[in-house]
Design brief:
The chain is α+β, with helices and mostly antiparallel strands and about 220 residues long. The protein has 2 domains: about 140 residues, 2-Layer Sandwich (Beta-Lactamase); about 70 residues, Arc Repressor Mutant, subunit A, CATH 1.10.10. It is built from 8 helices and 11 strands. The strands form 2 sheets. The protein has an 8-stranded antiparallel beta sheet with strand order 1-2-3-5-4-6-7-8, covered by helices on one side. Strands 10-9-11 form a 3-stranded antiparallel beta sheet. Strand 1 and strand 2 form a beta hairpin. The protein is globular and about 55 Å long. The chain starts with a helix and ends in a 6-residue tail after the last helix.
Length: about 220
Amino acid sequence: MHEKIKKAVDRLNNILPLKANQQSMSPEMQQLHRDILYSYIELGRSLTRDELAQRIDNVDEAINLLQQKDMVVFDSNREPVGAYPFTMEKREHKISVNGHLVHSMCALDSLAISPMYGVELEINSICHVSGEPILIRQNGFEIINSSDVENVFFAINWNAASANTCCADSLCAEMIFLKDQPVAHNWLNEDVEHRQIFTLNEAVEFAAEFFTPLLKR
């Protein structure tokens, strides 16, 4: 792994230690979390609270734990509405996969799904600065339409992370796509200390290294 990617994965794990948090739970809870992750690919949505209750003895206790560890996002009715890299909210990153339309929490999350599940998909998103559409076709680590998006960058504002709210509502909002090199470098130069940019190939490796371990026992 390139040193730049390793450092980025380590930095994100320090902010949002998903795999460590998953491993700290019981085998039953770990499987419940994986079931939620697979539901987005298999059903095009999250498992519901009632469906969780069919898989676990104490669903309220399970929800409290998943929420406390920032593994799953719940609404005010304690229904699951997101599990990194997915969300039930209509965000700017739309994923067409396995006959379903789902949304990802952020740009990095959208690039993680194909290598995580070994599926071909299409990402419809936008440049965070210009609002111009960005279409990425992906199969695992390969960007199928690479010639169309060779100038697109993934960018992250590390300073957006907040200890007072979940990553879905803080850092995810500033993990973005930028349409080309001039836009990416202008964005970066506004705050070089806290911002970082990646090519799409670098971002796919970053995303896969961070998210794929969640599906492994």
